[in-house]
Amino acid sequence: MAEEYVQSLARGLAVIRAFDATSPELTLSDVARKTDLTRAAARRFLLTLVGLGYVRTDGRLFSLSPRILVLGYAYLSSLSLPEVALPHLERLVAEVHESASVSVLDDGDVVYVARVPTARIMRVTIAIGTRFPAYCTSMGRVLLAWLSPDELDASLERSPLERLTPRTTTSPAALRAELDRVRAQGWAMVDQELEEGLRSIAAPIRDRSGRVVAAVNVSSHASRTTLEAVRRDLLPPLLAAAARVEADLHATGSTDSAARR
Asked: Ranges for the IclR-ED domain (predicted)?
């Protein structure tokens, strides 16, 4: 790996990742600080990205341009899962009147690849490409639960269990016990561990070999839905939606590409 590692490419990608929802505009010094690059190196990367059209600048502040979406779209366009899942999410949302999403696992995060929202129930706006820690989300626990022991160990090593709310599970032993329970029952429910007031329930999406390649969830606000109501009213239609997504993926042969990601 060391011999094949291209450091300049890694640094260029680090510059792109320096921009996020909380820092949409950065100065040269900001980028250098966030990426641990010298100002001279950061300047070269930024001006290269400006020249390629991925970054724009007014001479002092830099920001990503819409062209950066092309990089993410290359992934989404090669993965037919979002396209297959979307009509089933729409049907699910029409039935339960709550937001529904599909995500995949990337290192220790879930990444949203399809979503049909209803009323906004989180402080953070969720869009395609949004990432959350897997350990404290229902979809994340579904995806973690079916990893191999070695894959799970590696994922948890990369993701410290930070307390995001008073209810967040931060004990590795408790999390592993919960993942065992998720695997046994076939679904996961998380109660206000990612954000106060947010409850969600998720189910796995499997490929033809039985491998879990994605997860689908329904989320609701705690002020209007009890835990019992989530299990009683949301779980059955959620499981039915997951089964429909799986059936369509199997019919189209799309899960092979999903499983590689």
From this structure: 67-251
Q: Within 10 Å of residue 196's Cβ, how many Cβ atoms?
A: 13
- Enumerate the H helices of the chain as residue ranges: 7-17, 28-35, 39-52, 69-78, 81-96, 138-145, 149-158, 172-185, 227-229, 235-252, 255-259
Contact 112, 128 (CB under 8 A): yes
- Per-residue pLDDT of 69-92, as tens digits, reads 888 776 655 557 888 899 999 999
As a whole number of angstroms, the distance between CA 100 and CA 204 comes to: 13
- Comparing CA positions, the residue from 220, 161, 234, 163 lying closest to residue 191 is 220
Q: How many CB atoms lie within 10 A of CB 14?
A: 16
Cα–Cα distances (Å) from 149 to 146, 153, 214, 244, 256, in that order, read 9, 6, 18, 29, 22
pTM of the model: 0.71
Q: Which amino acid is at 4?
A: E
Note whether 184 and 68 are within 8 A (CB). Answer: no
